Amino acid sequence: MRRAFSPPPKRGVRAKLAHESSGHDWWHIHRVVRTVRTIAREEGADGFVCELTALLHDMADDKLNADPAAAQRELEAWLAASGVGPETAAHVLEIIATMSFKGGSRPPMRTLEGKVVQDADRLDAIGAVGISRVFAYSGAKNRPIHDPSVMPRERMTEAEYRSGNDTAINHFYEKLLKLKDLMNTDYGRRMAEERHRFMEAYLDRFYAEWEGLS
Ligand code: ADP
Ligand code: NI
């Protein structure tokens, strides 16, 4: 009984994300849902909680909502009315809150299901899909693909960074190449290692082509 919920959220989530361009579109959700299925099966996590959380994880994100507090209330109200039960609802909300934590010391995920969803979300930022998302995001911000004079983010001033003095290739070093070491689960890490190798091979070719060498 606890597993029967209504109304199914998929249509609502899809409608809300249909015209998203910050890299959190519906197909990102689709991929994260598919990936949690794979990891949950391998890790023995509760697949229902993982999939439900994957489906909802960006709903209250402040990048998607002019009023994130209202979006958070909407999410809580939906979960309360959904029939999943207060325990599952609280679990889903806890995972989403931990995933979207901004600021200093990142709190660790408490539950296996949280670890699985966070891994799947991070996996979508790396590998072939991750590469596509970087260039889509950079293009939407009118940033260049590469500029050999652009320094690592840590060495840019806040003003330089905000002025858009950032490139798609730079984002690999700022974030993407660091993600494999942040994986929570063994299976997630294995998937991340494969995607990481693909990005390294991609970058090797990119620089060789940049210099006209291959
Ligand atoms: P999330 O909210 O999922 O943690 P972000 O909003 O940081 O992730 O990123 C969403 C997507 O946009 C990711 O695929 C990420 O690599 C890409 N992205 C974010 N910031 C940049 C950037 N400065 N340059 C290029 N791509 C970026
Ligand atoms: Ni996400």
Automatic annotation (TrEMBL):
Domain (HD/PDEase) ranges: 21-135
CDD domains: HDc (cd00077)
Pfam family, one: HD
Signal sequence, renumbered to the chain: none
Chain segments annotated as transmembrane: none
Highest taxon in the source lineage: Bacteria
Protein's name in the database: Phosphohydrolase
Origin species: Gordoniibacillus kamchatkensis
Lineage: Bacteria, Bacillati, Bacillota, Bacilli, Bacillales
